């Protein structure tokens, strides 16, 4: 293990320790070690007091990265993240993507309803609509919630008689089976925090950071046929993109 001692910090020490610990866990420094070293050992490694270490561990526990059991120890709840971006430069379903990294995809909650089209829906689809279908799902990997997905579709896309029981694991596969091919999407990425409802659905603490991605999908005729909002747990996903020089 490389030197972890903190030489200087312009912010509260516990925040610096928490950042460093988060990085070390994400980079696999503690890979294979479900249990972190003791507070005393961590204090020695970082060159800080046990009080500072305790505050840092509490902050990471609130993020859902650690689980602490009083008198027993501290465990890493997740030491492997799925990289958002690798392979997602093309249109890929969650099901296909998550299997690529060795997980078993699933759905913990699925709800579909027709709602009157709001002004925002009409703006998102750039046309007048009477109603839209809204599909809400908690997507899982090996049974653990990783992402909350909202999918909004006009009636001509999903079909007037659609029932959620007809949907398999992949919405994209379902749409393709019914003759709709997606050509490209436009994405907006925003950092958000978990409110009480998001915390309940994703099984995280209220206030932890999350990553929100809004997509508008276009068909081969240039029509906007699908609007999605995916909200990711940042303790289980890493945003990773390849930037080309264009040469």
What are the defining features of this structure?
Arc Repressor Mutant, subunit A; alpha+beta; Chorismate lyase; 2 domains; single chain; 247 residues; 8 helices
Describe this structure in words.
With 247 residues, the protein is α+β, with helices and mostly antiparallel strands. The chain has 2 domains: 13-76, Orthogonal Bundle (Arc Repressor Mutant, subunit A); 82-239, Chorismate lyase (3-Layer(aba) Sandwich), CATH 3.40.1410. Helix content is 27%, strand content 32%. It contains 8 helices and 10 strands. It has helices at residues 13-26, 39-46, 50-62, 94-100, 119-125, 155-158, 171-177, 196-202, and strands at 66-69, 73-76, 82-84, 105-116, 131-141, 144-153, 182-193, 209-219, 224-233, 237-239. The protein has a 6-stranded antiparallel β-sheet. Helix 1 (13-26) packs across helix 3 (50-62) and helix 2 packs across helix 3 (50-62). The longest helix has 14 residues, at 13-26. The radius of gyration is 21 Å and the shape is elongated.
Q: What's the β-strand tally? A: 10
Helix content, binned percent: 25-40%
The name CATH uses for the topology of the largest domain is Chorismate lyase
**Can you tell me the number of structural domains?**
2
* N-to-C SSE string, H for helix and E for strand: HHHEEEHEHEEHHEHEEE
> What's the architecture of the largest domain, going by CATH?
3-Layer(aba) Sandwich
Strand content: 25-35%
